[in-house]
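Chapter review. Work through the record for Aldehyde dehydrogenase domain-containing protein before attempting the end-of-chapter questions.
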Amino acid sequence: MAGLFKKTIPYEFNDPSLVQTKAYVGGQWVSAASGKTFAVLDPEDDQEVCQVADLGQDDVRAAIESAQRAFESYSKTPHRERRWLMRRWSDLPKANREDLAALCTLELAKPFTESLGTVQYAIDFLDWFEGAVERTVGDTIPAFRGNNRVLTIRQPQGVVAAVTPWNSPLAMITRKAGAAIAAGNTVVCKPAPETPLCALALARLFEKAGGPHGVFNVIPCSPESTPAVGQELCHNPYIRHLSFTGSTPVGKYLNTECAKNIKKTSLELGGNAPFIVFEDADLEQAARGLITSKFRSSGQTCVCANRVLVHSSILDKFALILRQCVDDTFVYGSVWDRKVNFGPLYSGKGVDKVRLHIQDAISKGAQVLNDDAFANGVGPNFIKPTIIKVASGSENMKFTNDETFGPLAFLVPFETEEEAIRAANNTDVGLASYFYTENISRLWRVAEALKAGMVGARVGLVSAAEMPFGGIRESGLGREGGMEALEEFLDIKSITIGI
Ligand SMILES: NC(=O)c1ccc[n+]([C@@H]2O[C@H](COP(=O)([O-])OP(=O)(O)OC[C@H]3O[C@@H](n4cnc5c(N)ncnc54)[C@H](O)[C@@H]3O)[C@@H](O)[C@H]2O)c1
Ligand SMILES: O=CCCC(=O)O
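Structure tokens for Aldehyde dehydrogenase domain-containing protein:
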């Protein structure tokens, strides 16, 4: 990789062709017409890894046109043929797990072992949609009157724009592109500028799987080129559906733009997940669940717990158990060391936000219960898992109304179940919610009362390919994963036949 990478990395690729720095359009690897490139950084040390093609609006228009041409034939392929394509595409990441994990570790500084887990998560979506392709069936409906026969068929929509975030650079793409392609659409995917290498590797595997030209296209672009590219994705008439995962403000903007031409949108946006520990919970189990929910990906997932509500009678005991659990669980060091299971944040921007949230809480009376979050020596963007007790005044602290997206666990006391539910629901968003109780009546009551698209009752992880994933309120529109995901990418047509 010497010629491609500008820094030395402690990993040898088994298949160097997975490292691509050009865009994948119409089955070809292409540079930007302008010749422009942009830098991908390694967040472990902020050094440049390589330069990647920086596509502009005209390049993207050409990619969309190529996807539209491909749609004309691909949308007519039999379900069985699409199913085998999905199978071939899904088998290749299985054979190249370590290389994909290495790319994820390189551009996101995710510990290698954790990256292997995200590769599996990405594969799960391809597997799931492969299995689901042949179940996209229609209905026959008895006519109300007359002698008509009414039936429905489900048809692919056209070219889908998939705009994805940096924090899960493989699975957020297979979750969208897997469903869209299985359903017979073609895809133009714009990955986050921080993590284009993972997206391009998925394109290379699609190519190796014999994917028809133009069915899956990956168009990397820099932050500077993104607004114009976004405009093209929102306004090009061939785009029939824009599927976005990212922050709520950007989702609102893209949704507004798409509405001007009545384009369908699916939006997977930000969260602010409550995690409630009731007084009757198994505290060890709850602490382990919180470790998973809060500290997975160093706290950088949309479903990470953001506000930990703990019954006041057990708060100090729970904090002690949690602290012990953190000490027992995490190993720090180079992200390439397979024993290491906790890594840095994706960039200095993420560190700044975490610093703001912790300083704000401390200035308003919160107390850090474990080590200094920033005393580390593991690189510029590293922050330790940190537990913070907020005895009172949490409603005026920044973390209450804004996802921290970092490894801070704010423990906030409550007195009654009603108070906990009120606090949990007191937010504009509603993606994931978690709670721990040993009381079955309370389990049902609270699961039904929480305003969120996904509830984890006695679990700290809800994400899975077979499950409809998504939020309510300002956390988004639509569902990804499960059979519901295919529905998102299919139009229902009713046909009435006069007999
Ligand atoms: N609900 C979910 O499933 C889910 C999953 C992962 C992340 N997220 C959310 O994503 C956020 C973190 O990701 P992020 O910082 O990459 O979000 P972001 O909104 O800044 O960026 C997401 C994507 O949108 C692109 N983008 C930004 N401005 C654009 C524009 N004007 N036109 C077109 N594309 C544009 C970015 O380049 C990137 O590819 C968090 O809020 C997190 O909660 C949600
Ligand atoms: O960031 C959110 C996506 C990660 C997940 O699907 O669990």
